[in-house]
Design goal:
The protein is α+β, with helices and mostly antiparallel strands. Helix content is 51%, strand content 9%. May be involved in the metabolism of insect hormones and in the breakdown of synthetic insecticides.
């Protein structure tokens, strides 16, 4: 009996200690919801996100409620901060103190249990792999005329699909394979046209996106749930999705291995195999190659195709902008003249429209996660080593300090009185610093070329009975609502 009483007292004392330690740490930590012992703020965050329509809106509401640019939370056992103001976000993106990646269950799931790749790694390994990827993609034509020709080839195929005799097409479903094909060609040297596996791969990537959120989700906060409720927690589905994606990529890698010879570097996979076969290159494993390919597809295909999708949707929602875009293109270019990415300087209004689309419809609303590598100070708050860091691109793009009327879609905000393009520094679509998006050159070229090649030839309309609202569907990457559009030839 005495032993039982003693154990109860020890348990109570331990709980009191945890509560007081948490309260003490909160004095120097950014403000936010009250930390609940053991469960943290996760349930409250999820409830608010469901109510408002997305995690980015929940973070914005909490930051306003606590009157702070840096929101402090506890999700499960992790301390998390969310930066919600431009100056604070820039400080994070440029400081090497924030260059780490969390070592948690979320990252374990993202990397299929390998801890490999580029997106989810840090330190020397990340720098080595990043340098290798960038240098070899450049050698293969990344950012050059060869890359632009790949984009043009896909645009030609995409344009043929627009004049559907049925009238209206599903833009998202039609666009996604084209963007994936560009990335697949750069990576593997192969085309996916006619490959009946592509719709399945796109569905797998979409499912994976929907199962994750930037804070790591329920499983990351309570990883033990996978043992109690593997189905309801989504763990079994994630494992199945990861396994199928890995099999898809490994099939292509094995095809390359069968045809590889020393010195053959026709595409990125061959280049990687060349490095893999050198002595002392243990960082160039099959698992690493799988994850680099997956990082490329996830970072490139979903964000780029969704951005273009939102651009087309914006033209439906704002027909006066669409008409002005057409007049601009009609005035600047001859009807049979090829438009290159370099020609963007001739059409500043087009650039302004694309910037406004990315500001108004940021497909990545909350970015990260980062891990603090050493205790540091941010906006007068002490951020301990190991803290997980998120930053809200949505909050920056809606900040009234920098945007006069952020709730309005107005491309002219990016033009001066002479219709010249002005500063774009407060647009954080592709990030800043050493960890900025590696594929920004490809993404920007895709967005511009798809947009101008479609808008100069077609008028985009929707069925008035099913007019889209413009409200995005939440996820790791925002997607447009389901809508169908008609592309009517202008000439």
């Amino acid at each position: 009996m005495c032993t039982e009483i003693l154990l109860v007292l020890l348990g109570i004392l331990l709980l009191i200690r945890i509560i007081f330690d948490a309260a003490d740490k909160r004095k120097t930590f950014p403000p936010g919801p009250c930390w609940k012992p053991f469960i943290g703020d996760g349930p409250e965050l999820r409830k608010l996100a469901r109510k408002l329509g997305g995690q980015h809106l929940a973070f914005e509401a909490l930051a306003k409620n606590y009157n702070t640019n840096v929101l402090g939370m506890q999700l499960g056992r992790r301390r998390v901060i969310v930066a919600c103001a431009y100056d604070t976000v820039v400080q994070i993106l440029k400081s090497e103190a924030y260059y780490g990646r969390p070592k948690d269950f979320f990252m374990n799931l993202r990397t299929m249990g390998t801890g490999k790749g580029i997106t989810s790694t840090d330190g020397h390994f990340w720098m080595e792999q990043r340098t290798f990827l960038v240098s070899h993609l450049r050698a293969l034509g990344f950012g050059k005329s060869r890359m632009e020709q790949m984009i043009r080839d896909e645009i030609d195929g995409f344009l043929k699909l627009l004049e559907d005799p049925q009238g209206y097409i599903d833009v998202s479903a039609t666009l996604a394979p084209s963007i994936l094909s560009i990335l697949w060609t750069l990576t593997s040297g192969q085309t996916v046209k006619g490959d009946n596996r592509v719709p399945r791969l796109l569905q797998l990537l979409k499912t994976r996106n929907e199962l994750f959120d930037m804070s790591g989700g329920f499983l990351n906060q309570f990883p033990w749930l996978r043992f109690i409720a593997p189905e309801r927690s989504g763990y079994n589905l994630l494992k199945a999705v990861n396994h199928e994606i890995k099999e898809f990529i490994m099939e292509t890698i094995n095809e390359h291995k069968r045809t590889w010879s020393d010195g053959r570097c026709d595409d990125f996979i061959y280049s990687f195999l060349c490095e893999q076969n050198k002595s002392g290159k243990e960082n160039f494993s099959d698992d690493q190659l799988v994850m680099v390919c997956l990082d490329t597809f996830i970072a490139g295909s979903g964000t780029t195709s969704n951005t273009i999708d939102f651009v087309f949707l914006a033209m439906i929602l704002y027909p006066e902008v669409q008409e002005k875009v057409f007049q601009c293109l009609n005035k600047e270019f001859k009807r049979d003249e090829d438009i290159s990415y370099a020609d963007r300087i001739r059409v500043p209004y087009i650039e302004a429209v694309l910037l406004e689309c990315q500001r108004y419809f940021p497909v990545v609303t909350v970015a990260g996660p980062r891990r603090v590598l050493e205790t540091t100070v941010l906006d007068k708050y002490i951020i301990p080593e190991g803290t997980t860091v998120l930053y809200s691109i949505y909050a920056v793009h809606q900040d009234k300090k920098y945007w006069e009327d952020p709730e309005n879609f107005r491309p002219e905000r990016f033009l001066d009185e002479n219709d010249n393009l002005i500063s774009q520094e407060h647009i954080l679509t592709f990030g800043l610093g050493k960890r900025k998006c590696l594929g920004d050159v490809l993404a920007k070229a895709c967005i511009f070329l798809f947009f101008v090649c479609v808008l100069r030839k077609y008028k985009i309309e929707c069925d008035n009975d099913t007019r889209p609202t413009g409200i995005p569907r939440p996820g790791l990457v925002l997607r447009t609502e389901n809508y169908r559009a008609k592309f009517s030839a202008r000439y």
